[in-house]
Amino acid sequence: MAAVTADQTTQSTSGTAKAAGRAAGTAPDAADAARLAVFEAAVAADDRIEPRDWMPEAYRATLVRQMAQHAHSEIIGMQPEANWITRAPSLRRKAILMAKVQDEAGHGLYLYSAAETLGTSREELLDKLHAGRQRYSSIFNYPTLTWADVGAIGWLVDGAAITNQVPLCRCSYGPYARAMVRICKEESFHQRQGYELLLALSRGTEAQHAMAQDAVDRWWWPSLMMFGPPDDASSHSEQSMAWKIKRHSNDELRQRFVDICVPQAEALGLTLPDPDLRWNEERGQHDFGAIDWTEFQEVLKGNGPCNEQRITQRRRAHEEGAWVRDAAAAYAAKHTTPSTRTAQPAQHVEETA
Ligand code: BYC
């Protein structure tokens, strides 16, 4: 482990807690304890941990796991909606949907870049996704059967994502928190487009209303599963909350989402498919029915309706994109920046100038 040096005081989490770490002794154990104390004090003080700050390996590994899963979800999440781009019912709807799917590719890029600051490359993360060694959100293993599914994804899936992600803007790891600020702004637009699309269908013909209701019936429960297993079965929550990576538990955020959706469903003129859903005066929150956690576990094991299709398509897209990566690398090698050039041997600088 690198020693805590004066250099660390120049990092952006340079609160008093961090500065105290400079006093670390020379004995390895004492130095380790001092570094950990600095890290823990920074987290307790709501300072941001930045890439060059010392951090426990388990904190780094947890961030890589969550951020990689998040990035993978963004790019796999392009598939169900892209399925409808060519069949959007108007030019306006097509343009909106294309922009949304493109935004999701962008979110994936912000997140892979943020994960790279932890010392892991995008190639490595993609290899793990393609080999089935890292996860992506369960929600994207469900099919988009009708045009109304595009609306239900926007309203419910992006709505659930915002509920989960707004607290991540205050995540203790700086690059992840900053990426989330921009992502949440765009997700908010995505959620509104889905809501507006469903509203148009709900107020349309009887068949359109039925199509909207059917989409909500199919997406409601999987959207609740997006928040992860119940708190008593969540293996990572306690530690992630202690590190302020997560600010709320899975169940807290799920409850918040249900409470937000109930009045929105009423305004849409649609019904949430849960006979047990009702306001609980005492709790000041809605009670809702039992989630089918067996279905969730099956989807996580790869047995959801579209797991196979999604990962096959992802691997194919990666292989077909090889020429783009090669071209980008060749272009970058040709157009090195001035700072890169000074690092090259003189002969090379002359050749590329
Ligand atoms: N799906 O201990 P837990 C989007 C796994 S994309 C699959 O509670 P944690 C969008 C979990 O990984 C937005 N796996 O975990 C894009 C763990 O497995 P391992 C996606 C899940 O991390 C395109 C195990 O279950 N959002 O918005 O503390 C179009 C135990 O769980 C899921 C994010 O990724 C799941 N739903 O909490 C439209 C948000 N849930 O690793 C929209 C960032 C749990 O032990 N991520 N697992 O094998 C998080 O906030 C957290 O990682 C979670 C889970 C709340 C999801």
SSE topology sketch:
Elements: H1 16-20, H2 28-44, H3 57-76, H4 78-82, H5 91-116, H6 122-130, H7 148-165, H8 174-202, H9 206-225, H10 237-242, H11 250-268, E1 278-280, E2 285-287, H12 293-300, H13 307-320, H14 322-334, H15 338-343, H16 346-352
Antiparallel strand pairs: 1-2
Helix pairs in contact: 3-5, 5-8, 7-8, 7-9, 7-11
Describe this structure in words.
This protein is mostly helical. Helix content is 63%, strand content 2%. The protein has 16 helices and 2 strands. A two-stranded antiparallel ribbon has the order 1-2. A hairpin with a 4-residue loop joins strand 1 and strand 2. It binds benzoyl coenzyme A. The site of benzoyl coenzyme A has 29 residues, from helix 3, helix 7 and helix 10.
Distance from first to last alpha carbon: 40 Å
Strand content: under 5%
Along the chain, the helix and strand elements come as HHHHHHHHHHHEEHHHHH
The assigned structural class equals: mainly alpha
Number of strands: 2
Q: What spatial order of strands do you see in the largest sheet?
A: 1-2
Largest sheet geometry: 2 strands, antiparallel
Q: DSSP helix count?
A: 16
**Rough shape?**
globular
- The low-confidence runs, each spanning 5 or more residues with pLDDT under 50, are 1-26, 343-353
Bound molecules: benzoyl coenzyme A
Please bin the fraction of helical residues. Answer: 55-70%
Instruction: Give the overall pLDDT as a whole number.
Output: 90
Radius of gyration: 23 Å
